[in-house]
Design brief:
With 257 residues, this protein is of the alpha+beta class. Helices cover 17% and strands 38% of the residues. The protein is built from 5 helices and 17 strands. β1, α1 and β2 form a beta-alpha-beta unit. The protein is elongated. The model has no long low-confidence stretch (mean pLDDT 93).
């Protein structure tokens, strides 16, 4: 909850016409400021735009309040122009710890951050072959699959859910390790791992069966290995209307037929 009496609000819009129009109206109504002057950023768009805004301003420690002007709005609040300052002051803050990916390509290491999930995906018609280790212990010698992902609780209702992974309550201290169209071992359905676990994926036959690694919006192609752990020094702040918070949305997803 924001305790300031006067709020400096920055309005950012996606490229959609609806979002741009909404931003224009809101700036006139509430005298929008630049991101560097803001106490809170209002992101206008869909979930994709909310994610990109969270990534862009992660280091600034500014809370993000999304309003849905897009097609998907799981991370967004309902769009309403009236009483915005009051809504922001009453909003509940969710603090999320993202994942850090260290991917190796051509012997060089690259890092990326993920709020939702880190996924490995085959690049060609041939299935990927991936070795999985957790905290230095090999758990699966060879997973033959379209891919595999590690999801945070916040991302468990996104790609993880479509890959038949479990929905994880927000306050849970676990992440979901979920195969994507696994061929062998066919009966393996994934695992729940403590958040502090360090996961390593090694790509087998990487030249013949190339694999890309994706951390939210960041894709690194032709990786040979990927290491994942919590991004300990990073925190993401998201604001939600009190009556429709993220924890409730995640639980509610489990009861949607």
């Amino acid at each position: 909850m924001i305790k300031k009496n006067k709020l400096n609000i920055c309005f950012l819009a996606s490229n959609s016409n609806d979002a741009k129009s909404a931003s224009k109206k809101l700036k006139k109504m509430y005298s929008g400021v630049s991101p560097l002057e803001a106490d809170v950023i209002v992101a206008l768009g869909g979930d994709g735009f909310a994610l990109s805004t969270l990534h862009k301003y992660m280091e600034k420690n500014i809370p993000i309040f999304g309003m849905n002007c897009g097609t998907v709005g799981f991370l967004m609040n309902n769009y309403n122009e009236s009483n915005l300052v009051e809504r922001l002051k009453k909003a509940k803050e969710v603090s999320l710890q993202p994942l850090k990916m260290l991917a190796t390509k051509n012997g060089k290491k690259r890092t990326a951050i993920a709020v939702n999930e880190i996924s490995l995906l085959r690049e060609t018609r041939q299935a990927a072959k991936i070795r999985i280790s957790v905290d230095g212990i090999e758990r699966i010698e060879e997973l033959i699959c379209d891919g595999v992902l590690l999801s945070t609780p916040a991302g468990s209702t996104a790609y993880n859910l479509s890959a038949h992974g479990p929905i994880i309550p927000l306050e849970s201290d676990v992440n979901a390790l979920t195969p994507i169209s696994a061929f062998r071992p066919r009966r393996w359905r994934g695992a729940l791992l403590p958040k502090k676990s360090k996961v390593r994926f090694d790509v087998i036959e990487s030249n013949k069966r190339p694999v890309s690694a994706v951390a939210d919006h960041t894709e690194i192609r032709d990786v040979t290995s990927v290491e994942i752990e919590l991004a300990k020094n990073k925190k993401i702040r998201i604001l939600f209307d009190a009556e429709h918070n993220l924890a409730e949305r995640i639980i509610n997803e489990q009861f949607i037929p």
